[in-house]
Amino acid sequence: MEDWETMLKAYNQVVDPTYKFDPEIPPTQGYRLNEDGAQPYYAKLSPGKGRGLFASRDIQKGEIVHDGNKSDVVFPDGLSWKRYMFALPRTMACDQAEWTFTQKFKEGGPMRVVSSLNIAILMNEGNTVKDVNVQPEDGNGKPSEYSAVFYAMRDIKKDEEILMDYADYDTDYAAAGIGHQVEQTKMEAVKTYVHQAAMGWGMIFRHVGSTLGLGS
């Protein structure tokens, strides 16, 4: 709980002091999905995947499982994300680097830096297409890379892991202002970025410090 609170505090301090996080639902439980309360999943360890999300009850096909509009934080620009990362302890920043993704919210719109400062960010990817049980859709039941609302693609049993396809969103850190353009697939880009965060944090800190004018 303390780590999540540190992330929330850092976001308010260096990104948006006016942003209000829900005080009634702690980040360890998620966020308020609707008038009934938190979303229908909880976090625990997933074999071979680290932490993951699991259905807290039976979920019907077509039901909203996750609404990023109520959970995610969208950084104003790449520089604000770098300030945020620089404000976090190093080990915590490594997690946050892995939990950062990019998304456009409308066709032709700008690529934005997005994350979620609660357990919603722990949603894993299915190993196969058949494993995937949620996807972002528009209001007409069609898959949409511009949507942040995830629907159940089939009935999901209680305690079954909630799994998405990371390829639902394009990864373009350069377009979002937080990295350099490279010829990589989405997953290769994610793995490269996380590896740099975990194994070469000094390089990232020097880059961020230089960008912010915090060092020579």
Number of strands: 12
What is the CATH superfamily label? SET domain
- Hey, roughly how much beta strand do the residues contain? 15-25%
Q: Widest sheet: strand order?
A: 5-11-10
Please work out how many helical segments DSSP would assign: 7
> What is the CATH architecture term?
Beta Complex
Shape: globular
What is the domain total for the residues? 1
Mean pLDDT: 86
Series of H and E elements: HEEEEEHEHHEEEEEEHHH
Rg from alpha-carbon coordinates:
17 Å
Distance between the termini: 36 Å
Unreliable stretches, pLDDT < 50, 5 or more residues? 196-201, 203-216
CATH fold call: Beta-clip-like
The CATH first-level class comes to: Mainly Beta
Estimated helix fraction: 25-40%
Please summarize the sheet with the most strands.
Answer: 3 strands, antiparallel
User: What class would the helix/strand composition place it in?
Assistant: alpha+beta
Protein name: SET domain-containing protein
Pfam families: SET
Domain SET: 39-167
Written overview of the protein:
It holds the Pfam family SET. This is SET domain-containing protein. It comes from Skeletonema marinoi. With about 220 residues, the protein is an alpha+beta fold. It is built from 7 helices and 12 strands. The strands form 5 sheets. Strands 5-11-10 form a 3-stranded antiparallel β-sheet.
